[in-house]
Amino acid sequence: MDIKELQELVVKLEQRVAALEEEVGVIAGQVDELDDAFAEFAEDIYGDDDEDDVFDVECPGCGELIQIDLGILQEGFVNCPGCEEVLEFEFGCDCEDCSGEGK
């Protein structure tokens, strides 16, 4: 392969990479749109997504920050994704539905 053939090959590769980058950009935009649509759908199904209902807890075993929500608190435990240690929670609720028992 001489220099001219090598240069042509490099140009073709550059063009292909540029085309792939454009395709990836289009796909990334579509994924973002799907993510937004799914978030709206989930909000419609599960109700208002209030960030106040999410808590950061540090695993005492490995120090990883874990986000837990009201459902995990009510369940009473979660496995740390970093070290698999079981983190247990006591949850008491003062709403009328739970009568303070943390249903």
Q: Name the structural class.
A: alpha+beta
- The Cα radius of gyration reads 25 Å
Number of helices: 2
Termini, distance in Å?
A: 74 Å
Q: Percent range for helical residues?
A: 40-55%
In spatial order, strands of the major sheet run 1-2
> What profile does the largest beta sheet have?
2 strands, antiparallel
Count every beta strand, where a strand is a DSSP E run of 2 or more residues.
4
Provide the low-confidence segments as ranges. none
The SSE string, one letter per element, is HEEHEE
- Mean pLDDT, nearest integer? 84
Q: Strand-residue fraction?
A: 15-25%
From the spread of the alpha carbons, the general shape counts as elongated
Integer tally of domains: 2
Notable traits:
single chain; 103 residues; alpha+beta; 2 domains; 2 helices; 4 strands; 49% helix; elongated
Topology, element by element:
Elements: H1 3-46, E1 54-58, E2 65-69, H2 70-75, E3 77-79, E4 86-88
Walk me through the structure.
The protein is of the alpha+beta class and about 100 residues long. The chain folds into two domains: about 1-50; about 50-90. It is built from two helices and four strands. A hairpin with a 6-residue loop joins strand 1 (about 55-60) and strand 2. The longest helix has about 45 residues, at about 5-45. The chain is elongated, with a radius of gyration of 25 Å. About 0% of the residues are buried.
